[in-house]
Structure formats: structure tokens, C-alpha cells
Amino acid sequence: MVLASSLAHAPLVLDRQASPPPAGENRNLTRSMADAAFFGGMVGCGETYFSAFALAIGLGETASGLVASIPLLVGGTLQLISPLAIKWLGSFHRWIVTGAVLQAAAFLPLAWAAWSGSLSLAMMLLIASVYWAAGLAIGPAWNTWIEHVVPAPRRTRFFARRSRLQQICTFVSLISAGLFLQWTSQNERTLLGFAALFFVAGVCRLVSAVFLHRTNSTGVTPASCGVPETGAEVASGVRSTPIGNSSQTVSSGARQLLTYLVLMQVFVQISGPFFTPYMLKQLSFGYGTFVMLISVAFISKVLSMSFWGRIAERSGATRVLWIGGVGLVPLSALWIISDQVAWLLVVQLLSGVFWAAYELGFFLMFFETMPPAQRTQLLTYYNFANTLAVCVGATTGAAIMGWIGYSAEGYHTLFGISSSGRLFCLGLLAGIALPHHSLRQIRMRFLSIRPGAGSVVAPILASAEEE
């Protein structure tokens, strides 16, 4: 799943505070690297295991699927009002740090619930919603703020290193957490294992917030960055920038692309949230096998991203998006063929490769086709529509499973419907007239790791490399 920033392309106008000297600049970059490392640690051992925890504490397979989807809609909705919160606080920096601390705090009730062995579905959804609300609501502000924290001449190399560090820390945390849960489950202390993981995840995010707080803000003011003044402006996405020529008009191809992306998300999410209960409940995989399958998809996705970047540079992002879109079609249906671990490892390997193509092609084409004066409005609309699609897809999947029943046949039916829907969506992609992109590469932040490689990611817009 992909998320974009709705404030990221607002012009940066500074107040009277001077830019930091080189020594301060280097300290800022070091602190940003530390933030990335601890954020990656949180992702690897935190939200990635929410669905597994729902199963372990006895909430059931439906709850396991919904926990991975419904809270995202809350976060997507709060992105619509985050500009007002930034206005009220008068600072991007304060809003970012506040959100990071709140996200860290969301792990405390989860750790306590795991320790005590009791949690209701309503409380689980509420806690997960707070987590995603805090995380997604600060995304646009972070993207705007980081553009000035990192000097333009150093951005390409810095964000490459920063993204790599976050990916490494996420992977190490993911593997370590899975092996730890495997050990605790063998000793019949699974819930205590989850309590420890959520405590560590909260500490990681809190340390990340400390480094964000210590990063010197250089005076990027909300008013100077086009943050809306009123709730009506937030809801409509209106910007003061006039649209006076055809170059500022959204093309039919861009609208068709957005329709394809949102509808594709619905069919992906019909099956996506239910891979975790399928593996842990239906197939009775241990946590070690579970994390191995997730990790293979994650690694293949990360490693293939640079390959697809080279393909996009030579042949265009449209081709990469098409390869990814076609490759995603059979992925869920491939789980029907066999439940042998060796086969599923191959499926996960392919999942990572094709999801990398799809997400990179999407990001490159999305920012190329959106008129600059309307990007705030369109990205806000897309973010909300995307999270709504996640919720619609997951609840549809839950309804189908409730009707058919949680059995191997039920899961296989769900996987088949998902693949059929993805094939249908390709009809929307066909015939879209999209220009050759001017972006060569864009770095991403992993916000969550999901089975099937359909991770929640967000672009780092300051990292975009122009041709």
C-alpha cells in the first residue's frame, strides 16, 4: 500500500532564523539517521505483529484481518485535518514530535494487554487507530520539514543512506522479533513475548522522537508553506495558487490512473489482511516460519527496487508500472496451489519483486502526471481514497469469509477473488496516455511490513532525482 504526502510540494519560505552552520547541519543529519534507525526498529517489531497478536490473544481471524486495515482509515482521515493542527501549534517541528511521542505511547496499552492476557476487539482497534492516526497525520509535515533540514546538494546521497539504514534496522528487528516469539511460544509464554516486543517498539519510537526533537528546526512556518487557514480549505484541498492554463489541468489519463490505483487497492486488500491468519491459524505455521516468509518478500522488494529504477530510466515508468500491475495479478492465487513452505517462499520472492515495480512505477507516474498547483488537493484526495479502499477491501474480505467460513476453501476463494479483481483492474490501466517521466528515482519509508510484500510505504519527496 502506498501513501503520499499532501503538503510536500508546498514552497519553502523561511522566517528570519538563519540556516544552521555546517557543524549544526552535520549534527542534524546524524540525528535524522538515528531517527531512521530507531523508526525502522519500531516498524520491524511493532505494527507488523498487530494481526498476529490479535490471534494470540484470542480475538479471532476476522479481528486479525480488520486490525490490519480499519485503523488506516482513521489515519487517512486525520491527514485531512492535520494542517489545522499545524496552524494551531504554529510549528511543523512540534507537530512531528508530538505525533511521534503519541505513536510511541500507543504501544503501552498493548504491552499491558499482552502482559495481563486480556483485550477486547474494540480496544485493539482503538489503540491501532491511535497508532496510525499519529503516524499518518505527521507524514505531510515531516516531508515538508525534512526538505529544509537536508541541504539540496546533499539530498541524493543522504536519503539513499538513510533509506538503506532504515531498511537494515527494520529487517534486523523483524527477524529478531520473529525468532523471539518462536522461542516464547515454545515455552508457552507467547503473550509475554508480545508484551516485550511492544515495549521495545515503544521505546524505539520514543528514542526516535528524542532525535526528532533535537534536530534543529530552521524556521519553516506553516503560513509560508501554504497550510490552509480554514476547515473548509482543508476539506476541499483548495490552494491559493491560481490555475490559469491547460498545463495545470488534470488530464483524463491522470484521473484514470488514480481510479486504477484506488480500485486495485480494494482488490488487493480483499485478501491482503488475511494472509496472517491463514498462515498462523489455518496452516499452523510457527512464528519462525511466518517471519521467514515475510522477510523474503521484504528483502526481494528492497533489493529489486534499484533494478526497476534502472528499467524506468531506460524505458519509462509506464512500463515498470505495467510490469508490476501484471505481476500482481496471480500472486494471491498462487497461494492456492500449495501450502508447502518451499513453494510459498518462491511466491513471496516474486511478490517482493513485482510489488517493488508496482510501487516505484506508481510513485514516478503519480508525481509526473499531477499538475504542481493541484498536487496538494489531489494527494489529499488520493490519500483518503486509498485508505478508504483499504477499509472497503478488508471488510469485503471479512464478509466473504464470514459467509463461506474460515476453512482452507474459504481462504482459497478469497485469494481467487482477489486475483480476478486485479486482472479486471488492468483494463483501466490499458490505454492510459502517460508522459515519459522526468523523475529517475525516489526513496521510500517503510511504515509497515505485511505478508505478500504489500507494505505500507510513503515517499520521501525531498529524495526525488530529476533527469
- Secondary structure: helix percent: over 70%
| Number of separate structural domains | 2
The biggest beta sheet is recorded as: 2 strands, antiparallel
Q: State the CATH superfamily name of the largest domain.
A: MFS general substrate transporter like domains
Organism: Allorhodopirellula heiligendammensis
Keywords: Membrane, Transmembrane, Transmembrane helix
GO molecular function: transmembrane transporter activity
Domain Major facilitator superfamily (MFS) profile: 248-467
Blueprint of the fold:
Elements: H1 22-45, H2 50-56, H3 61-67, H4 70-89, H5 92-105, H6 107-116, H7 121-137, H8 139-149, H9 155-186, H10 190-214, H11 231-236, H12 252-271, H13 275-282, H14 287-315, H15 317-328, H16 334-337, H17 341-369, H18 375-404, H19 408-429, E1 439-448, E2 456-466
Antiparallel strand pairs: 1-2
GO molecular function, one term: transmembrane transporter activity
Keywords: Membrane, Transmembrane, Transmembrane helix
Transmembrane segments: 49-74, 95-115, 121-145, 165-185, 191-212, 257-275, 287-308, 320-337, 343-367, 379-404, 410-434
